[in-house]
Amino acid sequence: MKSAxxxxxxxxxxxxxxxxxxxxxxxxxxxxxxxxxxxxSPWPAEHFRSSLENSNNLSYALMxxxxxxxxxxxxxxxxxxxxxxxxxxxxxxxxGHATKLLSCLVNELGERGAKEIFLEVRVSNKxxxxxxxxxxxxxxxxxxxxxxxxxxxxxxxxxGIIMRLExxxxxxxxxx
Length: 176
Ligand SMILES: CC(C)(COP(=O)(O)OP(=O)(O)OC[C@H]1O[C@@H](n2cnc3c(N)ncnc32)[C@H](O)[C@@H]1OP(=O)(O)O)[C@@H](O)C(=O)NCCC(=O)NCCS
Known about the structure:
By secondary structure, the chain is an alpha+beta fold. The chain has helices spanning 28-38, 45-53, 97-111, 126-134, 170-174, and strands spanning 18-22, 57-64, 67-77, 80-88, 116-122, 138-150, 153-166. It has a single domain (18-174), classed as Aminopeptidase, CATH 3.40.630. Strands 1-2-3-4-5-7-6 form a seven-stranded mixed β-sheet, sandwiched between helices. The longest helix has 15 residues, at 97-111.
């Protein structure tokens, strides 16, 4: 009897197809929902709205097909930028999405002449600190008691870490 030949179906991993677009006021509901779900002190909708209206700010949405799964907002002043917010829907974290989003932002900032990015993060936000370190940010200082821990008790506070990332521009590289 002929032995049966079995052909195992080869497992294929399809890359998740994501894209970027400029964040707009039409995305506010999705953004606020992610923010409430992921942040200890979520920005209110008004904060996002005024941020979107500020022409010094750059903001991108990360789209998984038609679904918004993350966003980043930064402000650019001359050759220095401040990262104001970044978040990924908790169901899509640890899949490299924030890395892609940050890289999109850093490229755009570099093209607009930024040489460095600063940010502030709560000492208790270990996940975000781990992410920023993985992207090359370095701690440059500590702001004692910078953040309120509890909105009902103004004395219950925690430190903020200031981090910085140098943006590698062609100009910077040529100077080496
Ligand atoms: C911080 C945040 C944006 C990271 O998003 P993400 O898409 O999960 O990040 P990535 O998948 O691109 O992670 C890249 C690397 O960052 C590091 N990292 C990410 N999340 C981490 C965590 N929770 N703990 C430790 N390291 C972490 C890891 O080195 C990771 O690589 P690995 O998964 O291969 O180990 C996301 O956790 C988030 O939305 N947090 C809530 C909002 C927030 O705190 N924003 C910052 C405000 S200051």
